[in-house]
User: Which sequence fits this backbone?
């Protein structure tokens, strides 16, 4: 769809804004509505808009399929690791008070790190679901162009 | 009737209209667009009911990701319902 | 005020039945998944309405707010929305696979295919 001027220019204007809103929701999540899940989905929607306009190949240059798998696992690891760090330092699971000197700062830092893990996982998993749908379609179109029924997935 | 209640009734009426249109239309692409409209109306309703976080999720997930997934399925399965 | 709350429950029931109709009476699988989504959102409306307090504000911590709607249904609904997206994605993936295997996602055509295989 990148040959349509209106679409291209509007998207070029909108995509950075969408990504910025995603980051805003992420880092203001602890005291305003929103949080990791909403931020992750909004961030992924920005990338999906990019793919809808410029195609999956250019989208996968931004973030590759392998990077999505790794990052989606890394987000869960960050969440669980932060929780276990509290256990190692003498608290309970997901208790942040032992992490830093001041309890208030520790609570805030802990929740930001945990939410960042959630956001990372949600964003990459939303991208992954979309990519798997879109890739199957592009494989099908490639098989149609070769006109080879055997190759058709 | 206060303006608050009127707003509530209008959104709920819009929801019913959208749902009936989704059930009736034979054109699946139109149904997906109507589903997006339904999600945005629902998003307004959440804000009005005092649930901004649910509204945010509904706008991003219901109207964004789900509609795109439906469209990618339709490119494969055809847009006319028989 | 009671009229408004009753109207709300009627809307929930109507939306639920429209979704149910789409699931059981429409043959197209994409339409069935849409009906499932309608059904689900009607339940969300029921839940969030249960937490609403008339005259209450949003449940955000700030000065001068004493009355706010109950945030517990919001969190439950948030979880349900996440599950709903997963269900939709799995259902659509299944629809695509059925289309690839049988060439149709209409219930009636699929049943004809099965009957021919039996004979």
Assistant:
């Amino acid at each position: 769809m990148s040959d349509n001027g209106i679409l291209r220019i509007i998207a070029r204007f909108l995509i950075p804004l969408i990504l910025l809103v995603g980051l805003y929701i992420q880092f203001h999540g602890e005291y305003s509505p929103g949080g990791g899940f909403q931020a992750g989905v909004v961030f992924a929607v920005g990338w999906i808009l990019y793919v809808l306009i410029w195609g999956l190949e250019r989208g996968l240059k931004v973030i590759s399929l392998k990077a999505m798998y790794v990052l989606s696992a890394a987000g869960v690891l960050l969440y669980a690791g932060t929780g276990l760090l509290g256990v190692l330092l003498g608290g309970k699971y997901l208790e942040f008070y032992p992490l830093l000197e001041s309890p208030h700062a520790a609570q805030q830092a802990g929740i930001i790190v945990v939410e960042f893990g959630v956001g990372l996982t949600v964003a990459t998993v939303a991208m992954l679901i979309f990519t798997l749908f879109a890739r199957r379609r592009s494989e099908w179109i490639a098989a149609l162009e070769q006109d080879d029924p055997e190759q058709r997935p | 009737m206060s303006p608050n209640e009127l707003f509530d009734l209008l959104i709920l009426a819009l929801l019913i209209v959208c749902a009936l249109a989704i059930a009736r239309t034979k054109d699946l692409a139109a149904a997906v667009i109507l589903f997006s409209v339904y999600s945005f109306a629902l998003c307004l309703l959440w804000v009005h009911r005092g649930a901004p976080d649910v509204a945010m999720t509904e706008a991003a997930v219901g109207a964004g990701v789900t509609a795109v997934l439906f469209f990618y399925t339709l490119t494969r399965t055809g847009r006319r319902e028989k | 005020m009671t009229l408004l709350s009753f109207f709300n429950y009627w809307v929930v029931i109507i939306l639920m039945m429209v979704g149910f109709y789409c699931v059981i009476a429409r043959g197209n699988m994409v339409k069935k998944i849409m009906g499932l989504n309608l059904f689900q959102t009607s339940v969300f409306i029921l839940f969030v309405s249960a937490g609403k307090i008339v005259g209450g504000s949003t449940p955000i911590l700030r000065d001068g707010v004493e009355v706010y709607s109950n945030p517990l249904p919001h969190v439950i609904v948030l979880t349900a929305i996440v599950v709903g997206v997963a269900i939709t994605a799995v259902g659509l993936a299944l629809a695509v696979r059925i289309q690839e295997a049988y060439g149709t996602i209409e219930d009636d055509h699929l049943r004809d295919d099965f009957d021919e295989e039996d004979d």
